[in-house]
Design brief:
Distance between the termini: 43 Å
Oligomer: single chain
Strand content: 5-15%
Structural class: alpha/beta
Helix content: 40-55%
Shape: globular
Number of helices: 10
């Protein structure tokens, strides 16, 4: 056990020293939500996190798909963006990223209040399976939102990972702070639901109104894809996400 830990630590130190090639940097710029606007010191750290992610995680092509190095870099760059401001691990519990060519079907079963069991199928663009694996549709990885329309399936699913990992309050240890975080999400969630009920156009996708977990994932998409719009429209939520991620993308 000790030997395995030492080998893993040595491998990670080696990966952290790895620099991307110029071709990989061009791919990185193409796939990052903010393109080339990332500050140099953060970009250097991001490159090192990407090296760790690609070097330690398994990428599995599904449905006949072959996962290329460019695809790995595209996914890793967006996933590592979420942990860029933290001095913690890099998705340590994640074992594999499964990539389908397009949206995939997941069988589900649910029980109503009378105990009746219903089998159904859901068509998904991504799914965070606990903390051991994340499933993505490559077609949707390449689909990006336009101006004022945040959409990023990688950020969405890896935000779910962080949410699962922390029990609903990423990186927040203090009990009082965890309560304030959840109260803020619940208040913003209720505000979104009311706006949708009134037929108003909202910055956050109405799907965020499903529950607190989906709200956090959708808000994280907006935080990285449309940070200035989010800061202007929902300043309290933006400030909370800025504190959580320890990043301020609206200034990049």
């Amino acid at each position: 056990i000790v030997g395995g830990s030492l080998l893993a630590a040595r491998r990670r130190r080696r990966l952290l020293r790895h620099s991307l090639t110029e071709a990989e940097r061009r791919t990185l710029t193409e796939w990052l939500p903010m393109g080339g606007r990332l500050p140099p010191e953060l970009r250097d750290r991001l490159e090192r996190l990407i090296s760790v992610f690609v070097g330690e995680r398994r990428f599995v092509g599904c449905g006949g798909l072959t996962v290329t190095p460019e695809m790995k870099l595209a996914i890793a760059s967006q996933a590592c963006l979420l942990v860029l401001g933290r001095d913690t691990h890099v998705y340590d519990e994640l074992r594999a990223v499964l990539v389908y060519p397009s949206q995939f079907i997941v069988p589900e079963q649910w029980h109503d209040e009378h105990g009746v069991v219903t089998d159904e199928e859901r068509v998904l663009a991504g799914q965070a399976w606990a903390q051991s694996r994340i499933i993505l549709s490559w077609e949707d990885v390449g689909a990006r939102g336009g101006d004022g329309d945040a959409f990023n399936v990688v950020i969405h699913e890896f935000a779910h990972y962080l949410d699962h990992e922390s029990g609903g309050a990423p990186w927040i240890q203090d009990a009082a702070a965890r309560r304030r975080w959840r109260q803020l999400l619940d208040a913003e969630l209720e505000r979104l639901r009311n706006a949708v009920d009134r037929g108003e156009r909202t910055l956050l996708d109405p799907y965020a109104g499903e529950d607190r977990a989906e709200f956090f994932a959708v808000a994280s998409e907006a935080f990285f894809e449309e940070p200035r719009h989010l800061a202007q429209s929902l300043p309290e939520l933006y400030a909370a996400l800025r504190e959580t991620y320890r990043l301020d993308p609206a200034t990049w």
